[in-house]
């Protein structure tokens, strides 16, 4: 039997899609959350992580006691999505799912400039400058790509006919962007409809309702 | 029969690993290179690309005339690596290969700050500031991870016993960092040995010798 342990901070952030994949697949896992403000706990753990970062996924084969650790959020997400059948149905669909994830990660570079400014309590003027000069143009490009994918796909999902981890990742990011005031659902009906669809995924609804609130 | 067309600029950059994968696999492809300084040609092409970016991979099934376009360099690289058998041997190896690629892409965010400063002809003082304050600390973290992987793997490759597209990507980036003065082979013997090993891959040697020189 395989035992999974996901280790991340106590926010959605880069760990959330993997958590959702476990819930979507109905697969048990240990959801270890390191308090974001407990720097000591993190610095202690950091030494033993493969790349000095979180999330990591530990995969233990209980019979052989063989343990593998996978670092990097997208590598973990893709691994789980492939294991559970949410990576895309064909090699070409998988590549398109990967391309959407890469596009999200490109956008995340800009988003991080804003979340860093918020977290380090920069002035309102500086936060607004980052929003207007960096995040808004990046968001416009990113949203345009997402809307094109949704408009060209009658299933309501980003790629193919069924939910993939790209849908989870983009939807989760829309939740974050909503909280940051970057995604305004009433101004983006196509994205709002998509977001609502994913948030109403039957096997995830209870999880979404019960998880602790988190801006990021 | 499947016909591949890779479209990118006339530099190594984000297209090079896919080119190398075709050569490594001995698979024919059309290597379309858009001149970096021909802005008109690029703006014209940009409109018809899926995400407004290069590289893109066009996959044409000559029989059915069905054509698929894949955007995003890593999505293309992973797709080709999976097709040709250079993505890792097991799901867990594939995840580690993906994690290395993600680590490279994290570093690339910092590297881009430098290449942008060089390309937009910033002052020497500004270029040195970006090198010292942004690229060098990011490079230290990145190199530490790569060296740990190489030290823990007796094959000389980053993951598993055979060459993967992660080896190609990291080695190609070391070529770039060498040219930028960020990677000094004599100071990094582990990485220098790895770089030399990949550059001497029998099925790639002729390609490396014959390709046009490119800083980036």
UniProtKB/TrEMBL annotation, chains A, B:
One of its GO terms (biological process) is glutathione metabolic process. It catalyses: RX + glutathione = an S-substituted glutathione + a halide anion + H(+). Residues 2-88 form the GST N-terminal domain. The gene is Cnig_chr_IV.g14367. One of its GO terms (molecular function) is glutathione transferase activity. Its EC number is 2.5.1.18. Keywords: Transferase. This is glutathione transferase. It is an enzyme of class 2 (transferase). Residues 90-216 form the GST C-terminal domain. One of its GO terms (cellular component) is cytoplasm. Belongs to the GST superfamily. Sigma family. It comes from the Eukaryota. Pfam families: GST_C_3, GST_N.
């Amino acid at each position: 039997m395989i035992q999974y342990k996901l280790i991340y901070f106590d926010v959605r952030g880069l760990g959330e899609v993997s958590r959702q994949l476990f819930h979507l697949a109905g697969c048990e896992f240990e959801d270890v959350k390191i308090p974001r403000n407990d720097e000591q706990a993190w610095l202690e753990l950091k030494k033993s992580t493969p790349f000095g970062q979180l999330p990591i996924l530990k995969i233990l084969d209980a019979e052989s006691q063989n343990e593998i650790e996978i670092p990097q959020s997208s590598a973990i997400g893709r691994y789980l999505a492939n294991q559970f059948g949410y990576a895309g149905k064909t090699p070409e669909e998988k590549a398109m799912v990967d391309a959407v994830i890469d596009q999200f990660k490109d956008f995340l570079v800009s988003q991080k400039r804003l979340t860093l400014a918020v977290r380090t309590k920069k002035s309102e003027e500086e936060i607004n400058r980052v929003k207007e000069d960096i995040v808004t143009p990046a968001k416009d490009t990113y949203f345009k790509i997402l809307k094109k994918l949704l408009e060209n796909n009658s299933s309501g999902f980003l790629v193919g006919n069924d939910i993939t981890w790209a849908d989870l990742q983009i939807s989760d990011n829309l939740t974050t962007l909503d909280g940051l005031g970057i995604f305004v659902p009433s101004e983006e009906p196509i994205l709002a409809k998509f977001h609502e669809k994913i948030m109403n995924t039957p096997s995830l609804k209870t999880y979404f309702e019960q998880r602790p609130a988190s801006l990021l």
